[in-house]
UniProtKB/TrEMBL annotation:
Any GO MF annotation of the entry: rRNA binding
UniProt-recorded name of the protein: Large ribosomal subunit protein bL9c
HAMAP family: Ribosomal_bL9
Subcellular location(s) per record: Plastid, Chloroplast
Keywords, sorted A to Z: Chloroplast, Coiled coil, Plastid, Ribonucleoprotein, Ribosomal protein, RNA-binding, rRNA-binding, Transit peptide
InterPro entries: Ribosomal_bL9, Ribosomal_bL9/RNase_H1_N, Ribosomal_bL9_bac/chp, Ribosomal_bL9_C, Ribosomal_bL9_C_sf, Ribosomal_bL9_N, Ribosomal_bL9_N_sf
Family affiliation: Belongs to the bacterial ribosomal protein bL9 family.
Entries under PROSITE patterns matching the protein: RIBOSOMAL_L9
Coiled-coil residues: 54-84
Listed GO biological process terms: translation
Length: 158
């Protein structure tokens, strides 16, 4: 007599949304048939894998990769433009010696770039050193996770 083991009933699925302790949206997984039938499908969290669905996923991944590449190239172009400008001049009311009244902030740099280059830049990507006196400084703009641009700031007193 040969004992028969129960066959593991596993189904290949693609998640439609993030499921805690299972996976993230778009992930290809193997789950037990009962879990799929009783929980994932009724809640609309998963879809059974078909050849057409796999083709569609590959096309979507390629589109996303192309979009990421385009965004990175755009950031590199903007970095080249910002670095070839040479520098931006900032005028502040002068104080005693080399000191100026107030400080030069990231918002000041964003306003200057918008005025000179007609480019909108988010002030959260700009890191400016603490500027309290006249001179030359270097500010950094993080345009993309892999692309940063360094611009020169010339601070003058009126």
């Amino acid at each position: 007599v040969v004992s028969q083991k129960k066959a593991k009933k596993v189904r290949k699925i693609i998640l439609k949304e993030n499921v805690a302790e299972l996976g993230k949206k778009g992930e290809l997984l193997d789950v037990k048939a009962g879990y799929l039938r009783n929980f994932l499908l009724p809640m609309g969290m998963a879809q059974i894998v078909t050849p057409d669905l796999i083709k569609e996923m590959k096309m979507e991944e390629e589109r996303i990769e192309a979009e990421k590449k385009r965004v990175k190239e755009e950031a590199q172009k903007l970095a080249r433009v910002l670095e070839t400008v040479g520098g931006f001049k900032v005028k502040r009311k002068g104080g005693q010696g080399k000191l100026i009244f107030g400080t030069v902030t990231a918002q000041d740099l964003v306003d200057i770039i918008k005025a000179q280059l007609q480019r909108d830049i988010d002030k959260r990507i700009v890191s400016v050193p603490e500027i309290r006196e006249t001179g030359e400084y270097i500010a950094e703009l993080k345009l993309h996770p892999e692309v940063t641009a360094q611009v020169r700031l010339f601070v003058y007193a009126n």
